[in-house]
Amino acid sequence: MSSNNVVLGRGSGSRIGPGGTPIAQKRLNTSKNVLLKVVILGNGGVGKSCLMNRFVSNHFDQHSFHTIGVEFLNKDLEINGETYTLQIWDTAGQERFKSLRTPFYRGSDVCLLTYAVNDKNSFKDVSMWCKEFLTYADVKEGATFPFILVGNKADIAEEDRQVSKEEAQVWCKENGNPSFIETSAKDATNVELAFRMAVERWTKFEEKMDRHYETEVVDLRSVKPPERVSCCFSANPALSEE
Amino acid sequence: MNNGDKLSRTAETDKTETMEDSGEQGTELCSHHNVILKSYKNYDNFGVLSLVQYGPVKYIEWKAAEVNVDSDTQDQEWAVVSTGRSSRHRSNSECIRAEPLRLNTVNLKSFKVSRHRHGQHLTFAKRDESRSFITFIFYQANADIFVKSLMGHLKIYRSKKDKNLYHLDEDDNQETQELRRSFAELNLFTETTPYGMWNFIGQFRQRPYETTMGAFCKITDALLYRPAEDDEDDENHVAELLNQSLNNFDDPVIANVSGEEYEVIGSHTTPVLPSRPLVTRGSPLSVDRWAQAMDAEGKVTDFAAIKKIVFHGGVSPTLRYEVWKFLLGYYPWNSTYAERMHLRKAKVEEYFKMKQQWKSMTPGQEERFSDFRDRKSLIDKDVKRTDRVLPFFAGDDNPNVEVLNSILMTYLMYNFDLGYVQGMSDLLSPILQLMSNEADTFWCFAGFMERVCTNFDMDQAGMKLQLQQLHTLLSVLDPQFTQYLDRHDSGNMFFCFRWLLVLFKREFSQEDIMRLWEVFWSDLPCPNFHLLFCAAILDSEKETLYANNSGFTEILKHVNELSMTINIDSTLCKAEGLYAQLLSIESNLPDAVRIIIGLEPLNATAGDSEDDDIEDDDGDASTHAEHDSSIETVTLGALGGEVAFDRGINLQYL
């Protein structure tokens, strides 16, 4: 996937990195690269794939296909001297594919909730997407998880607009204050900024978690490793019938 | 680790004595190659599983195939029971890895065949209170063959409650046997008190354990213990969750061996494929040949021959317009010119009637019909994102985009239960480009949807089944690669999802996809040929995946990026070659594979009513409910009879 230098920053749900080393400690080594898993969610046709493609390859395809299954792309981003590798996941939005989409939420570090400013329904459904994400991502700190609300297609004529900035801001206030930005994948407005905000949001979230974590660190270390389950206590139910 | 060490030492002691009594030379009663001894993370332990008789006692014996099977890990994870006379004082780590693992059949209570991601598992349970177990993996899913062999040599009776569970009755104590049988028949003890009876019988027996079974505790421990670092691996988690969603591989499903049937014993090896024959493509169906195929009235008399030509070479582009209507079931092969004219007239009329239904929906109706409204809105969005790079759909306000929209809307009214699902516009687009005519296109599309509608099931059961079937085929075609996928969290085959959902529409150019589809529509050489086509693509890519040691995400990325790089002709040749390979070992193919490629299952036993009640003995009925439906074909197929076979065929998608 990436070089050995990459440290998984993912999985805010789990505070311990591979081998039992706290992620926070690993991240202190600034020569390393942090891999962040970013999931883009939203109704069909709001421009999820276009946002991803604009950000990753600075390219916009007016006639791009709708996504089938799951796709992802990687892109490096440098912020404050630190390099982040964003692994951006783009999924098919239709309800029918829910069961094959939601497993990919697991381990996300940031979630972009997207709608199109000319599509009122897509804005209404943002709450649904937020809920779906929290249900399946197994995020423990749901209330403070780094969400970014993205209103795409900001390039449209003003008379076609169905969702105002004010409405979006109200939604943010009522839903844990995620960052909010309007973008246009078509004319490139704010797209990179949206992903930068995502990383910054994650950084803040992590710092908060680190502080939280450090107060707990002693406790955690004193926790015994998980006990092995002996065969005698967990029989294989498949083999017992009598 | 636990008291396993002590127990295994004891076992060694007992064992040594036993072996010295009976001498080293045992008689091999039956054996099966390429069986893996399951440890908790190592699937490389290939070996031979056999039933060997030493004196009066029969042992299930497993020997590693190669001496260089590692292993320190092995030694730590289970005690290898040694046959050696000097082994008595050996520590575990000194155990010779090439030495076999022996299980005295007297001490085995039961065994069970279950279907897993890694083929079939054969799990033996020990008779004592620990209820520990040991699992062997038959990655080619042919454990049932071995079980049949065992039946010829051991006293085995099949559970009344679970057709995949078999009880062993090798205890030579007649009294105990009688008791056990009558208890089992009385069924006094429920599953919740499983070994109460055995304790009870144990008191009757008053017999010391003789051999080897101490090793079990350790093995079981290793099986159950999951290292903590696994929990940190999100990729692993994603794959696990996906597996749950796909919900396929971890349930006991197949392997119906009829309980009373005894079969000739012999050394049974897993099928090895012969080398792949060279296959070449033919030329497309020509105008002349097509004209020849029709009689004076216009009936296509030898349509089987036509299909053969189509399979080997496709259809000449100029003929597609006509031939596709037959291939897609719009026109019956045996219809006359006159009948077709008549039929077409009626169908066109029907189409516009249905079109009128959604056209005449008032805004007020729509407002109160959210299901309709949502689907309409999604169709509207998707047609604007379907093949717009092609000249046929290019540009703003292209009328063809509007036609695409109309046909999908009409299909919505034609089959509202299925509705509109993303992917359908991809399937429709090439047909529209070819037919141009709206109503003809609709009926051809409807015929195509007949073949693939299960891809769009609400519960995705059709997709899940196909992914599973692909895994099953691969496990015979290329066990090594299948194991690689399994080990890299990709045994769920999810990376083939897009291929299967829209039948490679996103992977090929317009011309190629038309060719590929018409080949599939010939229904030759077997059902599910598209799955062999998947296997053929993967065969060309596996070396790259090996070289990069690709894991779940890398495999997904690699496969996604193959789009527009696959050579259709060479892949079709390879897929046909794979089919020929399977056919050449036909009689050795596991039923699961036979059913997929349209062969009658071998273990079919008609009228075995016991098989009808399929029990979910894993206790978690809710998570398995979905699975049961998706696997219906296989189960039914394995039950045998022509009816079951027919149902299997009906569920084929191509």
UniProtKB/TrEMBL annotation, chain A:
Residues 1-23 are annotated as: Disordered. GO terms for molecular function: G protein activity; GTP binding. Keywords: Cell membrane, Cytoplasmic vesicle, GTP-binding, Hydrolase, Lipoprotein, Membrane, Nucleotide-binding, Phosphoprotein, Prenylation, Protein transport, Transport. Pfam families: Ras. Its EC number is 3.6.5.2. The keyword Cytoplasm does not apply. One of its GO terms (cellular component) is lysosome. It is found in: Cell membrane; Cytoplasmic vesicle, Phagosome membrane. Residues 10-20 have a biased composition (Gly residues). PROSITE patterns: RAB, RAS, RHO. PANTHER family: RAB FAMILY, RE17845P. This is small monomeric GTPase. It comes from Thrips palmi (Melon thrips).
TrEMBL record, chain B:
Acts as a GTPase activating protein for RAB7A. Does not act on RAB4, RAB5 or RAB6. Residues 314-524 form the Rab-GAP TBC domain. The keyword Secreted does not apply. This is TBC1 domain family member 15. Residues 1-18 have a biased composition (Basic and acidic residues). Interacts with non-phosphorylated form of RAB8A; phosphorylation of RAB8A at 'Thr-72' disrupts this interaction. Interacts with ARMC12. Pfam families: RabGAP-TBC. PROSITE patterns: TBC_RABGAP.
